[in-house]
Amino acid sequence: MRTSRISRDTSKVANSLSARTKPLRATQGRTLKQYGFGAEQPVAAAKAAVKRELGDESGSELSSVPSDLDENLEPVDTTVTSLHKRKRGADTPASGTTTQQEIVTTQTPPRKRLALGVEPDTIATKDKAKKARRAPAKKIVGGNGKVKVEPPPNWEEVYNLTKEMRSKVIAPVDTMGCESLAEGHRSPRDQRFQTLIALMLSSQTKDTVTAAAMRNLQENLPGGLNLESILAVSPTQLNELIRMVGFHNNKATFIKKTAEILRTSFKGDIPDTIEGLVSLPGVGPKMAYLTMSAAWGRDEGIGVDVHVHRITNLWGWHKTRTPEETRASLEAWLPRDKWHEINKLLVGFGQTICLPVGRRCGVCVLSERGLCPGAIVGKEVKRVKKVKQEVVEGKLIKQDVEVEVERGVKAEDVDGDAVPDIEDIGSPSKGRRKPRRLAS
């Protein structure tokens, strides 16, 4: 039986919109979109489109389309109705619709979001403190050719916050530093000599060990620790008394030679000039400036050790390769009234918070406020005991020493309250510093 044109068109539309429980495929949605079928009311849109095409406004024949289509047909997902790229400057989607970027942002893991090109600001991430940028001291040449050094812009804030942190902790240098090891009941000459000996012993040695060696000399040398007792003691006995410090063999030789030079060239007292101090065996610029400050009370330079050199470079105050370069850089702009205290300040800071291995940035105010460009998170230090072997006069001597090994810590445990997870201790040599030659 032949059917009318209206019946055939109606049948075609009904077949394409047959009731189903699954959403329309992308190709079907694209076809309906071309005919002007909306995603929210597909059946009503279909009826209106066919009526417009047939020029029939009554729609009597279309009333035979099954009514259950309205209940079972699911809306077309607007994120897949078009596979074409949107042109730049295109209008944003109307309110109530969901864009592809919003779906990716809310339903896709963070790593895949970045791969899909989602803007970083749409990704929900944990707030992190801003990392400071390096702002070193700058040299400014004036009109007359004179060079002036402009200090780092935030150095006073960093310095004052460090002093505040140091006031809340007691570091080994505060109670066992070289400046405090001389015996107060001795004569000024003997106190100056003891200060020099303490600094000579402190190279490559912790303050606690240096203090123990000094106490050993003060209590076991006949007549106590002074120039005469060092001249009288044998090299072997002196080496035995200081054997707990690093490189004790070399230091025992240096101390004996220094005592002889002081007796013959400096009238039994230590030199009162930097040139005279650095001429002594085993005394370098750092020891000389610290000795001048502690023994003679004159601040002629900054005593820069590994802590001062390392921390000031982490702060971005300069970019230097050696402690001597750091000293020259600091002396160019740091106020002279801080030359004496900066060594003890930063040594204690490096012993308690800004450790050489496993810096405790999680408890540092500078890291919290974004003032330290070198701040890191997630590492602490594990101290392990090892046996150090050394041959002395043909005999093998074993000594227990401590070495520092890095260990990982979770980001949420950087406050130091939780026990960190040990990632990899590695070989026994991991974390050990390479020995350096002593100043001669």
From TrEMBL:
Family (UniProt): Belongs to the Nth/MutY family.
Low complexity: compositionally biased ranges: 97-108
Compositional bias ranges of the Acidic residues kind: 414-424
Chain segments annotated as coiled-coil in the UniProt record: none
PANTHER family: ENDONUCLEASE III-LIKE PROTEIN 1 (PTHR43286)
Comp. bias regions, Basic residues: 430-440
Keywords, ordered alphabetically: DNA damage, DNA repair, Glycosidase, Hydrolase, Lyase, Mitochondrion, Nucleus
Classification via SMART domains: ENDO3c
Domain HhH-GPD residue range list: 201-352
Domain of life: Eukaryota
Location of this chain's protein in the cell: Nucleus; Mitochondrion
Catalytic reaction(s) noted: 2'-deoxyribonucleotide-(2'-deoxyribose 5'-phosphate)-2'-deoxyribonucleotide-DNA = a 3'-end 2'-deoxyribonucleotide-(2,3-dehydro-2,3-deoxyribose 5'-phosphate)-DNA + a 5'-end 5'-phospho-2'-deoxyribonucleoside-DNA + H(+)
Ranges annotated as biased composition (Basic and acidic residues): 1-11
Renumbered residue ranges of the record's region Disordered: 1-30, 50-108, 414-440
Pfam families referenced in this protein's UniProt entry, alphabetically: HHH, HhH-GPD
Protein name: Endonuclease III homolog
Function in brief: Bifunctional DNA N-glycosylase with associated apurinic/apyrimidinic (AP) lyase function that catalyzes the first step in base excision repair (BER), the primary repair pathway for the repair of oxidative DNA damage. The DNA N-glycosylase activity releases the damaged DNA base from DNA by cleaving the N-glycosidic bond, leaving an AP site. The AP lyase activity cleaves the phosphodiester bond 3' to the AP site by a beta-elimination. Primarily recognizes and repairs oxidative base damage of pyrimidines.
EC number: 3.2.2.-, 4.2.99.18
GO MF assignments: class I DNA-(apurinic or apyrimidinic site) endonuclease activity
